[in-house]
Amino acid sequence: MKKYNVKLLNKNFEKLPSDLKNTLNQPVIILSGKMASGKNYVCSLLEKFGYSSVDADILVHQAIDKSKNKILETFSESAGKENILILDQNGNINRRSLGKLLFTHPELLAKQEAIVYPIITQMIDDFIQEHKKTIINATVAYKSPQIMEKSNLIIFVQSNCIKRFLRARKRDKLPPSQIIKRFKSQKKLIKNFTKADKEIIIIKN
Fold first, then answer.
1. C-beta pairs of 42-47 under 8 Å, 24+ apart in sequence
2. Of 4, 43, 83, 182, which one has the greatest count of Cβ atoms within 10 A?
3. 64-87: per-residue pLDDT in tens?
């Protein structure tokens, strides 16, 4: 495994050393990083290299909608005990309420991942087949061996905790307690990727 540390200067990848530019020519790249580290921004810069990107967060939303009945069957009892309504007024899954439940109980999060990950993996596989160069924007891609196996390179975006907290508050409008819980759940995120036998570029954003 090769590991590079790069500071994102001038918001521009064109000034990277030539060996890193060559590395960025891989057909399938996983882009990861902790909550509000700036992954989407870095993704937009990488698209200038001819990549098409697929956002796993969006796929999660789609997978939740597709597995609505299974999610209700699995989590309604736990949600009821904590007075959390996981259906909105239109009868759709309230993802924010579901997230509040799941990030409070890691064992429930694992159950939800077992429901939606096979759907997400298939959608990502379909996307890769349709595009010559793909960026998989996925925070916890390491949880899917199939996705990890397809990747040629991992780019991990880092940013300091205070900056991430302020971004998350502005972007997601979540209570500080929920943001802190999500931060804690991602504490060892980079270690999970370094276990893979893949090249890693760490971008300090």
1. 42/8, 42/155, 42/157, 42/203, 42/205, 43/135, 43/137, 45/11, 45/12, 45/13, 46/13, 46/135, 46/155, 47/135
2. 43
3. 999 999 999 999 999 999 999 999
